[in-house]
Amino acid sequence: MNGYLPPRAAGRTARSGARRLLSLPVVALAAVVFLVLPASQSSAQEEGASEALSQAIADYLDAQDQLAALEQEQKDLEQELEDSEAEVAELKIELEEYAYVASTTSDFQSTAALLSSGDPQDAISAMTMLQFLGESRADRLNQLIGRLAEIEATRETLADNITEQEETTEAMEEARDQAARELAGSGGDDAVGPSASDAPAAEPAPRNSDGTLPYESCSEDDPTPANGCLTPRTLHALEQAQIANFTRYVSCYRPSGSGEHPKGRACDFSAQPGGFGGDAGGDDFDYGQNLAAWFVENADALGVQYVIWYREIWLPSSGWKSYSGAGGDPSSDHTNHVHLSIR
């Protein structure tokens, strides 16, 4: 099998290229190869899921991410509330103890005795003590009032968060149902799907601080013979698959048609070493099975939107389903390649 190391995008900085290379072991780098085929075999010529189905899946995943972020925010708010209430309890005890001591035998009585002693220096010391005690306790009282206000605000934010979680859950369920409705016309029955893969886990794609995936444009050169552009996340998924030793022919970008290919967010992974041929069988079928399973197992890490393989489609909202929305040929039936769409 002839192969070549995928060229680095011209637009990438030397720093990002070096960082990517340094992060890969030598053996893994050796595995990152693509089979060169004639231009006539460079595309599987399929569109993936319909626009409506793809949008429903995207809506579901966006709502899922938002819900996860809200749940984390709820945990943070509950911890903040617990810490604030503990501090308020300590402040109340401190002020109550001071009030008791001051009203009996402590600061006020001692200070009154000093003021009546007739010694000017003692009187100055007494007044200084009164001022200090008054200011320090006033500060603590103001701190208590401030924390109580913060607690009330935190409770209101927490209540809003829970309401938003309920609304997001409803949106997620609606998107899931919409995806099921869109799929019903081209299958939609439960399917077994491929068994688990034994390939190593993928390195996660970068996420925002709240766990959501950042927006990405088609800004990276496509290293496959398709010669287009990819989003950074799609390129990451492609490279991670190669590192996991899925090194057969791949074609990603396609300038026309619907689906994610023209957006730089989809790749077709041939099951056969020599490109997109007929229905995969034997070792080729096993290769496709393992690859499809690997994408599903690493769906969260890679940001997978959906996977299609051998007349079945994997959706994050419902798992593997039968998929007959095709033209009866190996490419559109996805019996000769695994289709991957990335968010």
From TrEMBL:
Please list the coiled coil stretches.
53-101
The record's keywords, sorted A to Z, are:
Coiled coil
Entry-linked Pfam families = VldE
Residue segments, region Disordered: 163-231
Bias-annotated ranges (Low complexity):
194-206
Q: Which domain of life is it from?
A: Bacteria
The record ties this protein, via InterPro entries, to: ARB_07466-like_C (IPR058593)
Amino acid composition bias (Acidic residues), ranges on this chain: 163-172
Start and end residues of each ARB-07466-like C-terminal domain: 227-334
Q: What is this protein called?
A: ARB-07466-like C-terminal domain-containing protein
